[in-house]
Each structure stands twice: as structure tokens, then as C-alpha cells.
Design goal:
This protein is mostly helical. Helix content is 69%, strand content 12%. The protein is elongated and about 80 Å long.
Length: 103
């Protein structure tokens, strides 16, 4: 195993995963545990024993979660941008009123 790999046991199989820049072995182990947990939940819920099918369904479930998070993030980003624009407009209006000469 080279330094660019991370080894973990998933469903009683030792698997070498590629290392991920910025993540510790503890964090990678947590991610692998989430994958195994997801596989176990799908297996229990759908009564599937085919490992490759379980892996595909787990990947699909994670992809759905990622898609939902991306959509939520985009919605939040748009809302934040609108709020910032409103705040800038209000600040500009206030500063404009203060800078206007008094009559």
C-alpha cells in the first residue's frame, strides 16, 4: 500500500481506497463507515444480498443526497445574494440622504 491509499474493511472485505487530500485517516474511516451503514440499511430495507447491486443503490442514494444539498445550497446562495443587494440598496439610500445638502 502506498501513501496515496487508505485501507479499510467493508462488509468483511479489505479494500484499498485512494487517499483524499485534506482528509485524515480518521475522517476517511468515518466516510467508509457511512458507506457501510448505508449499504446495511438498504440491504435490510430491500432484502437484497447482491453486493454489486447494494453498492450501486448506496451510490445512488448518496448521489441523491448530494443533489439535494447542491439545490439547497444554490437556493440559499440566491437568497443571500438578494438579501445583500437589499442591504446595499438600503445603505446607499441612507448614505445618499445624509450626503444630500440641506435646504
Amino acid at each position: 500500500m502506498n501513501s496515496r491509499e487508505f485501507e479499510a474493511k467493508v462488509r468483511n472485505r479489505v479494500i484499498k481506497f485512494p487517499a483524499v487530500d485534506g482528509l485524515t485517516e480518521l475522517e476517511l474511516g468515518s466516510i467508509v463507515a457511512q458507506v457501510e451503514d448505508k449499504i446495511n440499511k438498504i440491504e435490510a430495507k430491500m432484502n437484497i444480498v447482491d453486493s454489486s447491486k447494494l453498492a450501486i443503490l448506496a451510490a445512488f442514494d448518496f448521489a441523491v443526497e448530494l443533489n439535494n444539498l447542491k439545490q439547497k445550497s444554490e437556493t440559499n446562495r440566491e437568497a443571500d445574494s438578494r438579501k445583500l443587494e437589499q442591504m446595499v440598496s438600503a445603505l446607499e439610500a441612507t448614505l445618499g440622504e445624509e450626503a444630500a445638502p440641506e435646504k
